[in-house]
Amino acid sequence: MPTGLPKANSSVAPDDQGWLWTQIKAEARRDAELEPALASYLYSTILSHSSLVRSLSFHLGNKLCSSTLLSTLLYDLFLNAFSFDPSLCSAAVADLRAARERDPACVSYSHCLLNYKGFLACQAHRVAHLLWRQSRQPLALALHSRIADVFAVDIHPAARIGKGILFDHATGVVVGETAVIGNNVSILHHVTLGGTGKVGGDRHPKIGDGVLIGAGATILGNIKIGEGAKVGAGSVVLIDVPPQTTAVGNPARLVGGKEKPSKHEDVPGESMDHTSFISEWSDYII
Amino acid sequence: MPTGLPKANSSVAPDDQGWLWTQIKAEARRDAELEPALASYLYSTILSHSSLVRSLSFHLGNKLCSSTLLSTLLYDLFLNAFSFDPSLCSAAVADLRAARERDPACVSYSHCLLNYKGFLACQAHRVAHLLWRQSRQPLALALHSRIADVFAVDIHPAARIGKGILFDHATGVVVGETAVIGNNVSILHHVTLGGTGKVGGDRHPKIGDGVLIGAGATILGNIKIGEGAKVGAGSVVLIDVPPQTTAVGNPARLVGGKEKPSKHEDVPGESMDHTSFISEWSDYII
Amino acid sequence: MPTGLPKANSSVAPDDQGWLWTQIKAEARRDAELEPALASYLYSTILSHSSLVRSLSFHLGNKLCSSTLLSTLLYDLFLNAFSFDPSLCSAAVADLRAARERDPACVSYSHCLLNYKGFLACQAHRVAHLLWRQSRQPLALALHSRIADVFAVDIHPAARIGKGILFDHATGVVVGETAVIGNNVSILHHVTLGGTGKVGGDRHPKIGDGVLIGAGATILGNIKIGEGAKVGAGSVVLIDVPPQTTAVGNPARLVGGKEKPSKHEDVPGESMDHTSFISEWSDYII
Amino acid sequence: MPTGLPKANSSVAPDDQGWLWTQIKAEARRDAELEPALASYLYSTILSHSSLVRSLSFHLGNKLCSSTLLSTLLYDLFLNAFSFDPSLCSAAVADLRAARERDPACVSYSHCLLNYKGFLACQAHRVAHLLWRQSRQPLALALHSRIADVFAVDIHPAARIGKGILFDHATGVVVGETAVIGNNVSILHHVTLGGTGKVGGDRHPKIGDGVLIGAGATILGNIKIGEGAKVGAGSVVLIDVPPQTTAVGNPARLVGGKEKPSKHEDVPGESMDHTSFISEWSDYII
Amino acid sequence: MPTGLPKANSSVAPDDQGWLWTQIKAEARRDAELEPALASYLYSTILSHSSLVRSLSFHLGNKLCSSTLLSTLLYDLFLNAFSFDPSLCSAAVADLRAARERDPACVSYSHCLLNYKGFLACQAHRVAHLLWRQSRQPLALALHSRIADVFAVDIHPAARIGKGILFDHATGVVVGETAVIGNNVSILHHVTLGGTGKVGGDRHPKIGDGVLIGAGATILGNIKIGEGAKVGAGSVVLIDVPPQTTAVGNPARLVGGKEKPSKHEDVPGESMDHTSFISEWSDYII
Amino acid sequence: MPTGLPKANSSVAPDDQGWLWTQIKAEARRDAELEPALASYLYSTILSHSSLVRSLSFHLGNKLCSSTLLSTLLYDLFLNAFSFDPSLCSAAVADLRAARERDPACVSYSHCLLNYKGFLACQAHRVAHLLWRQSRQPLALALHSRIADVFAVDIHPAARIGKGILFDHATGVVVGETAVIGNNVSILHHVTLGGTGKVGGDRHPKIGDGVLIGAGATILGNIKIGEGAKVGAGSVVLIDVPPQTTAVGNPARLVGGKEKPSKHEDVPGESMDHTSFISEWSDYII
User: Fold this and answer.
1) Three-state SS at D81
2) B73 — contact with chain E (CB < 8 Å)?
3) Which residues of F touch B67 (CB under 8 A)?
4) How far apart are CA B174 and CA A215, in angstroms?
5) Residues of C with CB below 8 A from A240's CB?
6) How far is CA E107 from the centre of its chain?
7) Which residue stretches does the UniProt record annotate as biased composition, category Basic and acidic residues (chains A, B, C, D, E, F) (predicted)?
8) Which of B92, C219, E126, E256 is the most buried (most CB within 10 A)?
9) Could you say which of C103, C169, C285 has the minimum Cβ distance to residue A253?
10) Nearest to F275 by CA among F243, F234, F232
């Protein structure tokens, strides 16, 4: 489980960032040539910028601004954060790769950079999280509020999130204050990592590396979803899920049974295998 | 199941469009007279326009624009699309009728035209789908992204959708790339027509004509929901559902049992009967 | 159950409003001093205003405006509504207290006032509801539409809602036309209080005082959730739930069994106890 | 010369305001019916408002706002000012009448209210002047700056201006800090009432009642332009001009000669006679 | 003098429009390649459009829009006008050529199209004039007001203007209701073609073909400035100026004297010779 | 005459910049405390920034942006320019001092920084000029166009301007491509430094150090206005003016006569003495 600093698979070499940025610009240039109606958008968001960090800061600043929080202020805020903490950019790169590799609907890196609300919400969250750690709570919470309004993705700025994350579709995701998400995790839309009530303290789920959480799953309380575990769509999970097992249903049960649950070998957060457990789901009887 | 071209109930005669537009203008005029505070809004969105297509293009352009995708560009895009493919307008007319007939909270056609995010998201999707079929993917995806941000409705531009569709409330709806939705279907909010993992290809549900899908239902994989079937709220469906039957629960079961499921006679997508199956749901025991 | 006029716990003395507003300004002043980047925002939304009502009207007007519904128009509308019906302000005060007391992530009143989309959506709904009762349906529905777009919270303007309400996270909440929500209720995100089909009339749930409804719960039809009852996350409820009991699962069952359900003593809407029923949930078997 | 309180012709009875407002609404209603493309504009600026003061506050708030001075803030500011000092409204009424009576291109009161930058700048100036007198200089100067940017009319907030004023065309008008303008004055575009240098104190012109100042005239220093005098277009005036006389040229000379200048009978500020002096202009010899 | 329909030098063949548009796109493409920061702007204003008319309509719509007159409405208005009356486009082409040929600071056609407020104000005026002739006065006047606000160019919508016009710098230009401007005229900034007073009727100057009017000149009354005449900067003209002569000074005198004024051979509106008359200006004695 | 690098009085030590910025923040803080309605504006424009350069870049970016040239792009552009060429900032400091010292209506440095369109236009021009010198003409011209639209100040980006400049009121100022303005010059509104016709090359006035140019003066051609000279309001100057002399009238004459013009001792650009020459103006005979 990450302690804020991801380990495996997450060290992105500067060279890699350079390659990715070159790739993104090439994609955008090709799209701009084929589609003049979109060229203005592609130039303003990507092609006029000298780096991924500037492009992302510009795009987030313009997406998240409001009449009372100006785009220039947010742009400054993002630029400063990315400059202060380079790991924010390497995390963004890892997330771009995650989307490209795991989501068959992701046709290009630039598509993810521009259009994926899960990706954008996650990068903005990382900046809010940096502010939170710098004891700048009010600003972190204002940013959090804008992310929740604009993307319908509600991640508390204190929540710790690893690298290589895919928030697929992302609408309706809620992640609570003391939640922790490991590396190479994939989380579908409408997923809740929620708390247990009105008492403060450590009260939200801890999601291990490589976990896959299906659409609409609700995971509540300070419980552990073990490394490489899988949570089926629509499941309600209130108790720890062991590593490499699958929990499904409401309330959730382990596929294969509580005593000897089936163990899979793959990393579901990366393989994105949502549905292969169906045949094993004994009482699934349509 | 539609092959992109709806059949039954979906041929809207031009006369019908004319009648509807006259009706919408009459509603708006009445509202403008009764409510001067709203008159400016009603004139700009409806009463100043010469046709439903222009009104809708204007409204969508202003709803979906951003600081980097200007309203004039989108307005143009919508006008051109509606002009290029008249079936887009007849589909909008069928959807307006569907909302008016099936949703008791829909007090007028103009109410739906102006305020229903499901209706607006669906019309914008149809334009994105046209762009997709014209191999203008980047523009289709940019439009898709705006729809997902503004309406929290995430329909992949490649998804094929019939006519006479009601997306009721609509927030949180997710429809994947290879999903197909027939005619006269009603889909509540938070419904997912999702895929099966990281492998591409045909991997999303096929929804037959006249189907009703309850709030929060999650339907995953390249499965068939048969004509006139009903999926209960909150259900998780991973296997085909036969025509005219009802699937409920997580995991979903057929009402009446797998072997001899109860068959209903009505078209649930039109009758909107959400709850009559309760008495038959044998283990529903509060 | 409220008949539109809340009773218990809801009379907020003017003195109390004054105290709260003083407190909010003190919080905002402190934050503005510590965080110059946010000071402009805090002055425009809070510190430049002479009352909570003006601050809230300004903030909602700027949040909910669009290119066709100007902020000045909405600001006027809110100011007039709060002036016409002082109970709107006392309800806002009770809601601010509810968030501060029940949500451990709510660090200050000003945080809730500025950033909680559930709080803001609820106050805007109350104004829409006032318009509805004044037979100004078109304006009420236009406001409703803006709330649904901006906050992804969809509360029909006819729905009656008590005081001391916490819509926590709030994204995806849907509340139907004839729903009634009592006082001191807490409702998590993705909760649906839905109808039963295409027939009009009284068709939505009635939620008693002090009820707690977990994330993603779907409650359908004109049924009663008794005072102090609890509905577990992800539950699908189609039948009445007795007072002080807990319904969980899909379909929902009463904890302790249908015949002799366990009764709790607390007011779950205030204690926010989401998960203590787990040990009693007999078939919860991970 | 006015001492801030105009005398003649300027007491506008409340009844008169009522009549004018009724007239303006009738004009706007007629235009909205004939021109649907403009109806939205007319409803938002005039027809949705309950009084001239609200309409004017709305219109000025939306014209003068910027990304850092929001329309809601300005709207509030204008409403409060008009409410605090009713003479602001009667001055606006007198100015509307002046434009309608003196400018043959002014086809209606609503045309002036909506479109005359001179009229709008003058009303906004009056509010800035009120703020100045209330020792709220920074706000007065910020408003002044917006007026100068938006209308290219630069009237120092300390300048005192009577009633029944017509700033015709208005672009480029500059009026200095200690200038005073009487009642029933007409001033064309590019007119400067300027100072004498870097020394403070009373250093700008005093314009008597009924004066007419032609386009591009430059009047500098603490000099008097007597009641009913006329200053020709393009004149440069640095010395007092006696009442009922005409000064023309650069440097300005009195028509008829310094010793026995021609005296006219009419009130040029009202008759708008720009050019009848030509025949008397002895050396005008094309 | 034009009767609304220009004759000489103004018939622009469609082929010529095509050539110019191709040229403008080539210029914009070159600039976009050299200056990525400007590429987004160039694509949105020029390169994404299929014709000069669409580009100009888009640009004017976005320049002239306000919070109460939306860009989409104006865009529509311009598109419709250009489509209804093709002479509007040929006039724009002639004006682009005029700027390119006469203004040494005009480095390209695209520079004029995008940046010359005089050019843009003139094209918008032509649309306002069309509306005026169609008896749509209120809309014409609203457009006029926006042009005067945004460009500080105030041309009454009834004024008739020929082709091949250069409004150089343009700030502060005022052209009255019954003014007529011929073909191939050049008018510098701060020029007034004004009226004579409060009486209606034909009361503004008539400017012949090929006239050049210097900066700050004020021309008042229903007088004729003959073909090929020249009016010096800062002149005040109240009497007819014969063809091919030069009027200078305040009040204006003819160069060479009233009786035998010097006649020049060139077309000053095209040669832009501002200052060659100096040596002849007898009393010019610095 | 400056060669782009000002000499006298224009070297601003970094310490001086620091002192001025401290002073501006103190002024803004005092104003924010006294005027809560303006505090948001003061924080966003001044108090949230760490330096004069950032404050100015923010303010200009928000003033000059449009729907097709975003504030974030302009903000970046200004920040980069100020960072690239520190003399831009020292020139801004000298201009702030000039306004404060010479204009009795300038009550504070922050007042000038925020509200003086002449000051803001001049700083933005300096950035456009830097771009011009860097051979980035299209961007320089686009910025020039925005300055001309927003401030009605039209300074060609190639024009060279010294330090310690006061453009007072500024509306309508036009400065041509090859014009040069020295240090410590004061220029009133409506002043033209214009060219001579359609031929390119060096064709605009050269203004010496310490010159004062009165309102509405028109100076045409490649002529010299000598150091410390004065040009009266409304003058039309087409021939060189010797140092320390005064030119007035249309056409301009030297005060004291062509042969032995009166020479003054002061630096009119600093003393701002507009009118003391009146008694000497022999034929000024009102």
Assistant:
1) helix
2) yes
3) 67, 70
4) 10
5) 286
6) 18
7) 256-273
8) C219
9) C285
10) F232
Name the amino acid, one letter, at F86: P
- The total of other beta-carbon atoms located within 10 Å of residue F143's CB is 28
B230 marked as part of a ligand binding site: yes
Which of residues 172 through 231 in chain A touch B, CB cutoff 8 A? 172, 188-190, 214-216
Question: CB distance from B29 to chain D under 8 Å?
Answer: no
- Assess whether pLDDT exceeds 50 at residue E7: no
pLDDT per position as a tens digit, B156-181 = 999 999 999 999 999 999 999 999 99
Q: What is the pTM of this model?
A: 0.93
Rounded Cα distance between A278 and A261, Å, is 14
Q: Is A119 left (phi over 0), alpha (psi -120 to 50) or beta?
A: alpha
DSSP code, position A280: G
Structural tokens at position D24: 């303006």
Residue in E33, E46, E48 to test binding to A, most A beta-carbons within 10 Å: E48
Residue with tokens 């001044």: F46
Q: Is the pLDDT of residue D2 over 60?
A: no
Distance from CA of F201 to the nearest CA of D (A): 30
Dihedral pair phi/psi, residue C174, rounded to 5°: -130, 125
Chain F residues whose CB is inside 8 A of the A48 CB are 73
Determine, for residues D71 and C71 on separate chains, whether the beta-carbon distance falls below 8 Å: yes
Measured distance CA(C279)–CA(F50) in Å, rounded: 56
Q: Identify the pLDDT of residue A283.
A: 52
Q: What is the ipTM of this complex?
A: 0.93
Contacts of residue B48 in chain D, CB cutoff 8 Å?
36-37, 39-40
Closest-CA distance of chain E to residue A114, Å: 15
Helix D71-84, helix D87-102: angle, nearest 10: 100
Neighbouring-strand partners of residue C194 = C220
Contact B82, B61 (CB under 8 A): no
- Beta bridge pairs of residue B167: B187
Q: Give per-residue pLDDT as tens, F184-240.
A: 999 999 999 999 877 889 999 999 999 999 999 999 999 999 999 999 999 999 999
- Low-confidence residues in chain A, pLDDT < 70: 1-14, 277-286
Which of these, C56, C66, C52, lies nearest to C21 by C-alpha position?
C52
DSSP structural state of residue F44: I
Looking at residue C151, the DSSP 8-state letter turns out to be H
* Per-residue CA distances from E170 to B182, C97, E192, F219 (Å): 59, 59, 11, 17
Q: Which two tokens stand for residue D30?
A: 């007629």
Q: In whole angstroms, what separates CA C234 from the centre of its chain?
A: 19
- What's the pLDDT band for E283 if we cut at 50, 70, 90? low
Which residues, 6 or more positions from E85, have their beta carbon under 8 angstroms from its beta carbon? E130
The Cα D45–Cα D53 span in angstroms is 11
Q: Could you give all domains of chain A from N- to C-terminal order, each with its CATH number?
A: 1-153 (1.10.3130.10), 185-286 (2.160.10.10)
Q: Are D48 and B36 inside 8 Å of each other by CB?
A: yes
Per the model's pLDDT, the better-predicted residue between A279 and E229 turns out to be: E229
Element of type H or E holding F30: helix F14-34
Q: Are strands D246-248 and D230-231 parallel, antiparallel or unpaired?
A: parallel
Residue in chain E nearest C73 by alpha carbon? E68
Query: Which residue is associated with the tokens 């009105």?
Result: A198
Count of C-beta atoms within a 10 Å radius of residue A135: 9
Residues ≥6 apart with Cβ < 8 Å to E163: E6, E9, E10, E12, E90, E91, E94, E95, E183, E184
Alpha-carbon dihedral sign for residues B126, B131, B135, B136: negative
Neighbours of chain F (3+ CB pairs under 8 A): A, B, C, D, E
Q: What number of other Cβ atoms are within 10 A of residue B5's Cβ?
A: 10
Chain A CB contacts of F48 below 8 Å:
73
* Structure confidence by residue, pLDDT tens digits, F169-182: 999 999 999 999 99
Query: In angstroms, rounded to a whole number, what is the distance separating the alpha carbons of residues B71 and A242?
Result: 51
